[in-house]
Amino acid sequence: MKNLYVKKMPESIRFRVVLCILLLGLIYGCQAQEPPLSPAAAAFKQEIKECIDRLVKPLMEPVLKRDTAGINETLKKVEPEAIKLCRMCPFRIGVVDQNGDTLAVYPPQKNAHLDFHNYEVVQQALKSRKISHQRLFLQDGSSLYVICVPLIREEPMGILAIALSAADAQNRWGLTEKEFVALDFNR
User: How far is CA 78 from CA 44, 69, 72, in A?
Assistant: First the structure.
């Protein structure tokens, strides 16, 4: 019966229907793709990914055991190699347990035992089991970029946190705040 109805339809209407269907297909089929990363954002993301790849596996065992000496030794051994910025390293790396309590900070720092369990970026990484990042503000008004990588066996057992100032990111890579916020470290 449908075919009979279509045959009785005037040719101009059939043309319009076909045209509408093609336009709808074109509109939905050609959605805007995600814009490519700028060279600055791509370089920053690549360096962070390399750092994560080199640190996560060696940190798993000491974090599981809450072995702060082992965590510090791992960070001391792997961090300069991973970041490739020994002379002017802008990163601070922290390892926190699943409760957000600091287990270690590298480079070492006095009074580094801080409580991060209320930080949204830490909670998001623990809940989603994915890398989370966020811009934070320091008391002096400057910005700090934080990337939190969940350390997971069967359950999240801690976080590898990489932090650097927005000024260092701008100076070293030319990375803007807008580019940092738009990055996806899970792809």
Answer: 19, 14, 10
**Cβ neighbours, 10 Å, residue 125:** 28
- Plot region of 108 (φ>0 → left; ψ -120 to 50 → alpha; else → beta): beta
* pLDDT value for 12: 64
Instruction: Tell me the C-alpha distance between 101 and 63, whole Å.
Output: 12
Q: Is the pLDDT of residue 180 over 90?
A: yes
Q: Count other Cβ atoms within 10 Å, centred on residue 103.
A: 21
What pLDDT score was predicted for residue 87?
Answer: 41
Residue among 141, 139, 177 at smallest CA distance from 40? 177
Specify the pTM: 0.75
Examine the pLDDT at 31 and tell me if it is beyond 60: no
Cα separation of 22 and 77, whole Å? 60
CA distance 94 to 114: 10
Distance CA 143, CA 138 (A): 6
Strand arrangement of the beta sheet that strand 132-137 belongs to:
102-106, 92-97, 156-165, 143-152, 132-137
CA distance 127 to 147: 15
Task: Please classify residue 124 by burial: count the beta carbons closer than 10 Å to its beta carbon, then call 0-12 exposed, 13-18 middle and 19+ buried.
Answer: middle
